[in-house]
Structure formats: structure tokens, C-alpha cells
């Protein structure tokens, strides 16, 4: 009986050799590679320390002149390095605009607002696309009633002032920065570019100083917000102790299409009203109160390729009605642009272990002609948060597949699309605000913002959290309804 009991116990034990999963082997490999430098340095330091312990006072005196020369060289090189290194740029805070409830509309309500300017066939197409768009029932459009076939200039200007000034007011309230301290103002709006410019509107509204530097970016699509970050970073490198204010928006009342072309009607289904603002600083004493530090900006432009250049294009139809055409090649272009962008970004952010695995895969396929799948680097090892432009369900599906991201990392982008729609280049900030409202941002976390835009461009910005964001104290566009998310989105 004892023997039988022993056999039963033994049969109930797990097969440990089979239970060792590949992912644990991979984690061990990553740990070994990541700490290889330390594993090499420790023995070298031990040998040097032992060697120095054998020196007598006479030996040290003989080497004193050499030590002085080396010290002088070290001090000189350190000074040169400190003076030539880039200035650190901090994201003090940011704000996302939440329009008044009177502009909130459901999908059917939006169709009704368009009913006076579209024929029955176009309205049915909008209904079909809206059901699969990934948008929810509480997005915002700049019209309380019917949308006119010809939107007056004053409507566009009123929308611009409402969303931009509203977002800036929220940001100034959060940061406590005085408007006279702002030295750089950058605005990006793709379709609507009035004269005077939107940046001039900000200067006039807040009565900024005569020395303020202003820029107005137009026609750069949904990735322009990250281009604005890059421009602000470059300007802050040459202007000490400065604040840069970025306003990111798309004035969608200027982009409503009232014709019959289905390729142009798509934008009506996706784009919604919104804006974001961000305050960047290069002041060293702002580090303590800032949320994030800018780590990397990588910009990719595929405009030399005609297919990429034409995949999102603003022009007129045969009836002279303006609208943005989205070509059938759009998703292929998005994938190619992303691949090019992450090829540059990867070496900057991925651990050495991932880079070596990618290199080994490349050599095996190109040099030894092995028929193996290309190794896709695991960007989850480089970032804790993914802020992907909420351009549409198809875009998010494509990136989820290409980057092999789990549902929880796609959640901020999908919920942004569902709650606010495609707010163009400001959507990546609504994504980050979602993660803050959920209490997911911890000190040291890295966030990757990815934007796509006409031209065709793919841009990446990487931030590192300087402190843990307390969701209980944080006030943003998600604050009073964050407990309702995530929701299950059906198509």
C-alpha cells in the first residue's frame, strides 16, 4: 500500500521540465544581457582595486604628475560635455478640451444633422460606416442643429476660439504659469488656417509680450501635434529658461463634406471636435513639478512615394465640393510608415537583448538564407503606455496586430476613439489623459505617442514619467466619467 501511495504522489507531481515556459527563458536572457555591463565591470574594478592596494607611498608620489594630468583632462572633457549636451525638456502639464454638453451628439443624431446637405444614398452610407467606426454615442460636433451646406467663416473661427482658448485656460489653471512667462507659442490645425493666424489669436486674447515667438503649422494632418513637440524641443534648445505653449486641434466645421463621393464621406464619420494644449519647459527647477521628461522624437516622412503622398488628400469633387479623400492604400501606407519609424526608434528604446535577437534574425534570413519569420521586437519591454492616434478602428486594429499589443495597452486608444472620436492630432493626448485618470502612470514609466498624418508621415514621441500621477487629484477630460470605462465596443 505504501508503494502504491508513493506511486500516486509521484504521479500527481508536475513535470517541471515541461512547465518551464519559453517566456521565462527569454526573461532570463534579457536580464543577463541587460546586466552584462555590470557583470564585466565588477571583476575589472576588483582587479584594479587589488592592484592599487599593492602601491607604496613612493609609487604614488612617482605617479602624482600623471594623476594631475589625467584629472585636468577629465575636468576639461566633463566641462565640454556639460556645455554641449542638449537641454532637458520637461512636460509641465497638458490639458484636453471637453466641449459643452450642448455639442454632444449620438451617431444617429449626427446623421440627422447632415440630412439637409446629403442625399439618401450618402446618408445610408454614413449609417453603415458609423456602426463599424468604433465611435460611441457621446462625441462632439460643432453644430447644435442642422449642419449647413456652406459653413460660414465665423463658425470656423468661433469653434477655433472655443476649443483652443478653452484648453489653454484649463492648462494655465493646472500649472499656475503666468501668460507673460510664455516665450514660444505653437499652434497646429490642418484644414483651417485663417488670417490673422490662430497663434496670433492666442497672442491677442492673452495679450502676450512683443517678444513672443509664434508658429502656425497647417496642412500636416493628424501627426502635426507631435511635430509641434519636436519644433518646441528644437526651439527650447536655443532659448534658455523658457516656456513653450503648444495648442493642437482640428477645426472640423471647416472639413465637413457635403458631396457624394464615398472616399470623402468617410472623414465625416470619424472626425469630431476637440483640442489639447501642452506646456513644455527647459528650466531645470521645473523638473520637480513637471509630469514628464521628453526622451526621444522620431519623425518619418514617406512623401517621396506617390502612393503615400496621395492616400489622404484634400481636393474638390466634380461638383466643386471640398473634402478629404482616403484611398484604399491607406492601411498599407500606415504599416510601411510605422515599420520605417520603429526601425529608427528601436535602437533608442529597446533593451540590448531585443536588439540582438532582431539582429540574429536578420542575419539568419539575409546572410544564411534561412526561411524563418522576421523577429518582431517586443516594444512592451520598452514602454508601459501606448498612446496610438485614434484615427479609426482599422488603424488601431492594424497597430495592435503589428505591435502584438494586448487589449489593456490598446484600451486608452480605443476608449478615446469611442468617447471623443478622431480628434486628429490631439487624440494622443486624450489617450495619455485616460491613463492618468485610471491611475496607471507611475514614476519612471515610459509612454510612447504615435501619430499618423497626411503627406504621409509617422511620428513618435517618447516621455518618461517624473512622478506618479495621483488620479484622485488629477482633473482632466475623463475625470468625472472614468469609472464608466472601459466599455465593450461592438461593430
Automatic annotation (TrEMBL):
Catalytic function, reaction form: a very-long-chain acyl-CoA + malonyl-CoA + H(+) = a very-long-chain 3-oxoacyl-CoA + CO2 + CoA
Entry's family note: Belongs to the thiolase-like superfamily. Chalcone/stilbene synthases family.
Every Beta-ketoacyl-[acyl-carrier-protein] synthase III C-terminal domain range: 384-464
Molecular-function annotations in GO: fatty acid elongase activity
GO annotation, cellular component aspect: membrane
Organism in which the protein naturally occurs: Nicotiana attenuata
Gene that encodes it: KCS2_0
Protein name (database record): 3-ketoacyl-CoA synthase
Transmembrane residue ranges: 29-52, 64-83
Protein location: Membrane
